[in-house]
């Protein structure tokens, strides 16, 4: 039996407003527990919520970015349940009239192919507080700083068919919200997390299978691992004659498995009703047009432009456009050196490698886009060879020089392209290596190409790495073959 996986995601994005969605308390991350929860966040008697206009604007911008219908009228509802981190006894959310209607997102897979994932809707709501289990023996601590932080919950249609597609979708959402600047997208700090709905069905069957919902997964990698485990669990269960029950599960990254949290029978009855303290949100066309006018170039548009106008491969265009900071850095490097392919190679290769090693973001790169662009220009105009370029890169990275030219001068890295000078070095190396020359002469012609490496190495060494490698190669071959 062949099985097909079906996945739908509910992504929670903390919006980057400075104050909360219904109060003036700060949303800054990392403060001492309970120093940023005011009477409104605690639901004390007599207080009234005031909607944060910025949260509305951010939700609308997201909607516009995913080609969604924006509701002219949206309504906040109370979702009633009891939990210690929810002192009001209800969460203010949007159940029946969400602010963002159906839309879609394009995802790119590793092979460069694309697919459209439909978004069912996105709604505004408030985050709850946090239960603290460490440091409290036999008790649970509650930190309500997070209570009232604005969330945008983005609900997809069940359009994904593999863990890879789900991760690509989550990455696409991450790119969009960080491009828009409506969230910092910091998954480690919980700024973005998702509930993963997974089911399986026999290949060819139209009806969906029963799904399990894995709550609060907070990294791209965990999404893939949770799905992989869950798919295997469900298939095994069905093949053994059992059936999947609709339930909420938790992913345990330490044991790489999902475990049941509660089944449908234990689910809450939320008794939604419109919040009497908040007016419906009414938006007019002028307001939407105003926000539309402020949208930046979005990741999908950048990707397309990088491919069509700059000639990058689908893969490169996708990797570079995924982060706005990286895309802008790349564009600055490109405008300095004029070669998109080289700019993309250096940004994804040498630069990303160095940033990863030192755990730095591209915004904090010790080497500027201008410096990198100049460095690439010096390779393109043959001032230095590839090996020297890496040395210049390292020097600029370490702050040993203001510009590529300065480093090249200071270290004497200018490439030797003078044929006479290179020939002199080659003659010397040949004279110093009689045994290797004899070996070269006596070996099969098809093996000689490989053997030439030894001589190239010696000449490069003699030039302290500055000889032009193509010239060295060509001239060496001529001279050695002349000895045959
Ligand atoms: P509910 O109303 O119970 O929350 P929804 O219909 O809103 O359920 O779906 C919630 C999420 O689950 C959506 O992202 C949706 O795409 C996904 N989903 C629904 N049915 C399935 C299924 N059979 N398999 C996988 N995902 C599903
Ligand atoms: Mg739901």
TrEMBL record:
- InterPro entries given for it? Asn/Gln-tRNA_amidoTrfase_suB/E (IPR017959), Asn/Gln-tRNA_Trfase_suB/E_cat (IPR006075), Asn/Gln_amidotransferase (IPR018027), Asn/Gln_tRNA_amidoTrase-B-like (IPR003789), GatB (IPR004413), GatB_C_1 (IPR042114), GatB_Yqey_C_2 (IPR023168), Gln-tRNA_amidoTrfase_suB_CS (IPR017958)
Reactions accelerated catalytically: L-aspartyl-tRNA(Asn) + L-glutamine + ATP + H2O = L-asparaginyl-tRNA(Asn) + L-glutamate + ADP + phosphate + 2 H(+); L-glutamyl-tRNA(Gln) + L-glutamine + ATP + H2O = L-glutaminyl-tRNA(Gln) + L-glutamate + ADP + phosphate + H(+)
Q: What are its E.C. numbers?
A: 6.3.5.-
**What Pfam families does UniProt report for this protein, alphabetically?**
GatB_N, GatB_Yqey
- Quaternary structure and interacting proteins, as annotated: Heterotrimer of A, B and C subunits.
Annotated function = Allows the formation of correctly charged Asn-tRNA(Asn) or Gln-tRNA(Gln) through the transamidation of misacylated Asp-tRNA(Asn) or Glu-tRNA(Gln) in organisms which lack either or both of asparaginyl-tRNA or glutaminyl-tRNA synthetases. The reaction takes place in the presence of glutamine and ATP through an activated phospho-Asp-tRNA(Asn) or phospho-Glu-tRNA(Gln).
| Record protein name field | Aspartyl/glutamyl-tRNA(Asn/Gln) amidotransferase subunit B
């Amino acid at each position: 039996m062949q099985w097909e996986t079906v996945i739908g995601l509910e992504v929670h994005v903390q919006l980057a407003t400075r104050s909360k969605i219904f109060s003036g308390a700060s949303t800054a991350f990392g403060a001492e527990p309970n120093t940023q929860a005011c009477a409104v966040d605690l639901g004390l008697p007599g207080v009234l919520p005031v909607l944060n206009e910025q949260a509305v604007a951010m939700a609308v911008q997201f909607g516009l970015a995913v080609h969604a219908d924006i509701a002219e009228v949206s309504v906040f509802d109370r979702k009633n349940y009891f939990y210690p981190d929810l002192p009001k006894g209800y969460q203010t959310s949007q159940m029946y009239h969400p602010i963002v209607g159906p839309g879609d997102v394009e995802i790119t897979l590793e092979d460069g192919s694309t697919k459209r994932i439909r978004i069912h809707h996105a709604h505004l709501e408030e985050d709850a507080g946090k239960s603290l289990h460490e440091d409290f023996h036999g008790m649970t601590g509650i930190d309500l700083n997070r209570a009232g932080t604005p969330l945008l919950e983005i609900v997809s249609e069940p359009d994904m068919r593999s863990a890879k597609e789900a991760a690509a979708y989550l990455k696409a959402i991450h790119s969009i919200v960080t491009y828009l600047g409506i969230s910092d997208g910091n998954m480690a700090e919980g700024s973005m997390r998702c509930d993963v709905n997974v089911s399986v069905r026999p290949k060819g069957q139209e009806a969906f299978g029963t799904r399990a919902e894995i709550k609060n997964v907070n990294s791209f990698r965990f999404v893939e691992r949770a799905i992989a485990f869950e798919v295997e669990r469900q298939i095994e269960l069905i093949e053994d004659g059992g059936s999947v029950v609709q339930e909420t599960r938790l992913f345990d990254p330490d044991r790489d498995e999902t475990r049941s949290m509660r089944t449908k029978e234990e689910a809450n009855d939320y008794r939604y009703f419109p919040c009497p303290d908040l007016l419906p949100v009414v938006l007019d066309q002028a307001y939407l047009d105003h926000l539309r006018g402020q949208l930046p170039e979005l990741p999908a548009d950048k990707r397309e432009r990088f491919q069509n106008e700059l000639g990058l491969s689908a893969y490169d265009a996708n990797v570079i456009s995924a982060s706005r900071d990286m895309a802008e850095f790349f564009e600055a490097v490109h405008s300095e050196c004029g070669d998109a392919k080289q700019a993309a190679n250096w940004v994804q290769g040498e630069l990303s490698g160095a940033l990863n090693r030192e755990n730095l973001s591209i915004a904090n790169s010790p080497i500027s886009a201008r410096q990198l662009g100049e460095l690439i220009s010096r390779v393109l105009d043959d001032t230095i060879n590839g090996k020297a370029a890496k040395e210049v890169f390292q020097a600029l990275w370490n702050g040993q020089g203001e510009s590529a030219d300065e480093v090249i001068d200071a270290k004497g890295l200018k490439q030797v392209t003078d044929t006479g000078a290179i020939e002199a070095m080659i003659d010397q190396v040949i004279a110093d290596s009689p045994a290797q020359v004899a070996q070269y002469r006596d070996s099969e012609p098809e093996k000689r190409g490989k053997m030439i490496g030894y001589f190239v190495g010696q000449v490069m060494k003699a030039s302290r790495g500055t000889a032009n490698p193509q010239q060295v190669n060509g001239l060496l071959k001529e001279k050695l073959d002349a000895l045959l």
